[in-house]
Amino acid sequence: MSDSAMDHGSAGEGTRAVRAGLPEPVKHEPTLPGPVFAAHFHLPGEVTGPYAYGRDDNPTWTLLERAIGELEAPGRDDAETLVFASGMAAISAVLFSQLRAGDTVVLPSDGYQVLPLVRAQLEAYGIEVRTAPTGGDAQLDALDGARLLWIETPSNPGLDVCDIRRLAEAAHARGVLVAVDNTLATPLGQRPLELGADFSVASGTKQLTGHGDVLLGYVVGRDAEAMGAVRRWRKIVGAISGPMEAWLAHRSIATLQLRVDRQNATALTVAHALRERPEVTGLRYPGLPDDPSHKIASQQMRRYGSVVSFTLPSRARAERFLQALRLVEDATSFGGVRSTAERRGRWGGDAVPEGFIRLSVGAEDAEDLVADVLRALDESAE
Predict the structure, then answer these.
(1) Chain segment 253-266, per-residue pLDDT in tens
(2) Which of 41, 142, 222, 317 supports an S-S bond with 130, CB 3.0-4.6 Å?
């Protein structure tokens, strides 16, 4: 069955992931063509067609953008996808292409730790920045007079969740655009455009590609004019993905459902094990029935993510715990097939306790990972 004959809107998620973005089959050609390395293309006469210069477009991007769009907005013809060199490149493209001096933007006060740097740059350009926490839909109170609402749900690293549909409806009633950072959820966890957002933005560095070897970002939007501005920003800044990175990302998407399902199930198992430990406080995972975010998360998410967060009694205890782990790498980022963990406070940009741990659950066997975490907790005790 060719891709043109398959309805990507009705196909199962695994089928979509495996088939996403593939071109029509050509005899003796690979099912996923290799990366196109080109700074320029043959261009006699007038400029026509999609490919003229390597900063503007590339056939490898085209296939990847089609693949991401089929996951983020299956069955929608009005959604456009653009890939970027990193998640921050994608975030910056939306913010700086949509906002002007005198505008107001609402950011989460508990979002990704680079957002304070973004705030400083926005303010330097004469843009007013308001902040409010993700939990409790607190950003609702900051919407009046704003141009753009930036949502991060689940939030990183605190794992709070807000009601995307409720916030989007309230924002649109005030003429406010809505962008959702979908990095932690992935398009298999939630689809922000279906919930009313204007943009879905993510770091493809994380679980989308899942192997810890690619830096990538993307923006999916449903308004042609707004996405035209995002595309112009990419052209001006040159924040483009290399063809090899784009090809690796596309290849990796084929296993997305397999990885997400395995990692989500194991994350829930790890969370249940951690809740039995007396030294663990502030345990958060939206998939736990008693988690403060579970009710809203269960209404808008199909999967709850691979990240579990919790706090140990002190910075020293957290460091000893991380050093005692054998299957879990002490590294930043999340969503990879190899589990990682870090004491998040070491970066200085998150309002978290010194003993706060962000644990990204990989694809290891659940029993092995739980045993490693519990053993490390035992060995790190004073």
Answers:
(1) 999 999 999 999 99
(2) 142
